[in-house]
Amino acid sequence: MTYTVHVYFSSSQFKFQHINSKHILSNVTMIFRRPSPSQSAQSDATSGPSSLLPSDSLSQAPHSRPTPSEAETPSSPHHPRVAKRRKVRATSTWDHFREAEGDEPYKKDGKIIHYCKRCNNPRWSTHVSNNARYHLETEHHIVVEEDSKPQKERQQAIQNAFARTTVKQTQQAKENEMNTLRRSINFDGFREAQMLLAARRRVPFNFVTWPEYQALLMAVNPAVEEFLADSGNTVAADLDRAYSAHQESIKERLKLARSPIHFSMDVWSSPHRKAFIAVHAQWVDENYKLQKALLGLPNLRRSHAGAAMAPYLMEIIKKYNLAHRIGYFTGDNDSKNDTCLRQLAEDLSREYDVTFDPVFYRTRCSGHIINLSLQAFLFATSKHALQAAIEQAQDEANDITVVEALQEQIQSNTSQRGKRKARNDATGWRSIGALGKLHNIAVFIRSSNIHNDVWDDIAGKALGIDNITRWNSWFMLLDAAIKQEGAISIFLNQYHKELEHDILTHDDWQLLKTTHEFLQPFYQATLEQQMEWSSIDQVLENMDILLKQFEDAKVSNNKNYLLQCCLACLC
């Protein structure tokens, strides 16, 4: 049996410690190590046993080499090499050490021995990291402070786990938020509102692709991004589907109507020079409530004659199965509407054997009647001139209204025979007095950007202009002119050369104010006739009021020759 003895030598004296005296020295393997100065002094001063260094510290003198059994070589029968290597944990500490080289011992008790890179003579080695750090600090003044690798790995694993959990929780919170925002969107309502915006506000279908529009929607709800349309065709398709769906809904509601289906119709021209005929229906539903709906708005192509409009009406009647439930038709006083209903009566009799009286079931728009009377008051120079304008408008081949015929008469006062003058002929309008002068001033302001800017600097608001088709446009022009009388005088003074024949005198202003006062009840009556609650009894009452207005005006303005002439044309 072999015993290991730690022997310290100091100067020339050897001291043996921890030796079992009952064994032979030949069975003892001695390992020599040079003690530190403090240990040498302690050994010299005392005769008692001295402290030992850690048992894994080895000293190899240049003249003595450990035996193979001591070095734990792979071929040692007492200490065979362990197949699985132990992990090196103190990585920063072992950076100052190297592995065994040549015939140096490789392992001790199955642990790898490390050799100090700084100690060459004598060499110093150990397999314990604490001893290695102590050696570096005491011998080489290198302090190594580090946590163990497992502790670092555990801390890193904890941090990574918390980081992953935080990221996952953040993602989950965002997803929950987006789901909440997504659920708050009424997709069908959104698409329908988008479609109605295009239809009612006359914006192009591709407005849904405008970045500004999409940015507005996403600012309100970021989840709407997945519902955004990338083409105007989406809006067009939505319009088609919505029209078909609402059409079926209207059909079902019309079946339950408790009254005949009454119609109102009118022709309208778009800014793109396309004509449309609007067909509107009114009825009393199963709950005895008044209902209304637009049944169709077909494009009226090529001809606007009454006979050309009848097929469009007939198609709508067929689509909604209304041939046996037709009530009254309301339209303006245009003779084309009379022709249209006569043609419709023939078609209903031929296809459905339905008797329809185009005269009895024809009612006329009260607002249009009021507008016609005002236009006659303003522009008819005589009863003969008014009758001529009416006869001209009744001829469908002329495709002209009574108002247009009256204004054509005004322009013909200065135009060559057989040639139609433009509507803005200043000389022709001037022939009707103060109203014609005011019209020319309004046209002059709009004829140039410079004129318009000068007027804006003076008045700060638009003057407006009369319009053939817009009701009350003359009343609105007179109302604005009277309120801006001072601004008009300044403008006329600045452009007195260009407008020298249209200067408004004191008498002209008096006539404009009198005319404005006369037109006030007519303006109010047309507004009332446009209300949903308008009825026949209200129409009759308004007509009585307006007739009295005419009679009173004849008495109060008996000294105004021009106004008396205008009133005489209507009586």
Structure description:
This protein has 571 residues and is of the alpha+beta class. The chain folds into four domains: 3-146, no CATH class; 152-235, no CATH class; 256-364, Nucleotidyltransferase, domain 5; 367-570, no CATH class. Helix content is 50%, strand content 13%. It has 21 helices and 14 strands. It has helices at residues 37-45, 68-71, 91-94, 129-140, 149-183, 187-200, 211-220, 232-255, 306-319, 335-352, 366-379, 383-394, 402-411, 426-430, 434-446, 449-459, 473-483, 485-494, 506-529, 536-556, 561-570; strands spanning 3-10, 13-16, 28-33, 58-60, 97-98, 107-108, 111-112, 114-120, 123-126, 261-269, 275-284, 290-296, 326-331, 362-364. Strands 12-11-10-13-14 form a five-stranded mixed sheet. The chain has a four-stranded antiparallel sheet with strand order 4-9-8-5, with helices on one face. Helix 10 links the parallel strand 13 (326-331) and strand 14.
